[in-house]
Specification:
Blueprint: E1 11-15, H1 20-31, E2 35-40, H2 43-55, E3 59-64, H3 70-80, E4 87-90, H4 105-133, E5 136-140, H5 153-173, E6 179-185, H6 191-194, H7 199-203, H8 214-226, E7 234-237, H9 241-244
Parallel strand pairs: 1-2, 1-4, 2-3, 4-5, 5-6, 6-7
Helix pairs in contact: 1-8, 3-4, 4-5
Length: 245
Amino acid sequence: MPQPNSDTPRLAVVAGGGSGIGRACARQLAAAGWRAIVVGRDAEKLAATVAQIAKAGGQGEAFQADVRDFERLADLAARVAPDGLDLLINSAGGQFAAPAAELSPNGWRAVVDTNLTGAFYLSRQLFPALRKRRGAVVHVVANLWQRGAAGYAHSAAARAGVVNLTKTLAVEWAEHGVRVNAVSPGMTDTEGLQRYANREETLARVPLGRAASADEVAEAILFMARAGYVTGEVLTIDGGLQLVS
């Protein structure tokens, strides 16, 4: 777990912090003494995360924003600019199932903009603050990018784009001391898993025999956040599923 500075708590922005993996990351960071700003579209979900953090004695605050809104993210950048930023965790994302032959332009744009464009917008707007503190970025990338994913052409293409974005930013920003990595979870016990039509069939193929918990994925994300000599890498966390699929 990353450790905060004894005088000034380290600052993390957690996009998608209103639920699931993002919420687990925010809770773990706050428990370790970090100040966590949780970002998302749903004010009630963000408030619930902040309440959980406060109940545990941590420091958390909400920032309502859509990661597709470049100008709104400029407001977030201004908020963290004075002191700089130690960590950006991007767990914002979303998808729906649709055969490619039936996928509308709006459906394509909605998923690609949320997952890929949102990852770029967050990274781009928060880079000056990250550079100030020689911080780190960890993108959460669903493992659809690793192979063909029937019914998820929009999402798989977007996630593959985030993987390459991660590697490219790692090269460009290394001279500034900013590391950029990604974590690629498989089946994770979140609300999204309950909506996944093939969940039982897929879970049956996982060598470890179960889904990950959101806290387990968060632990891996925070490992990548503190791995000071690692950049441009993607850590797969799927219970061994990629070994047999």
